[in-house]
Design brief:
About 10% of the residues lie in helices and about 35% in strands. It is mainly β. The protein has a single domain (about 1-60), classed as Beta-grasp domain (Ubiquitin-like (UB roll), Roll). A 5-stranded mixed sheet has the order 2-1-5-3-4, with no helix packed on it. β1 (about 1-5) and β2 (about 10) form a beta hairpin. It is globular and about 40 Å long. The mean pLDDT is about 90.
Length: about 70
């Protein structure tokens, strides 16, 4: 199964949740937002939102400033 994360292709052996994907990619779970196919996924839904072949995922890192 192929997904795209921040414009980079990744191969996964099987469908997984957003939470599992973050673990597999060693991405930090704190301070980020996740969008799948241009829709923000609430952090409480990460364990239940199953990714599908071809999904476009964007990881957005929170920053401070102003």
């Amino acid at each position: 199964m192929e997904i795209t994360v921040n414009q980079q292709n990744h191969q996964l052996n099987e469908p997984c949740s957003v939470e599992q994907m973050l673990f597999m990619l060693e991405a930090p779970a704190k301070g980020i937002a996740v969008a799948v196919n241009h829709s923000i996924i609430s952090k409480s839904d990460w364990p239940n939102h199953v990714l599908k072949h071809g999904d476009q995922i964007m990881l957005i890192k929170a920053t401070q400033g102003g």
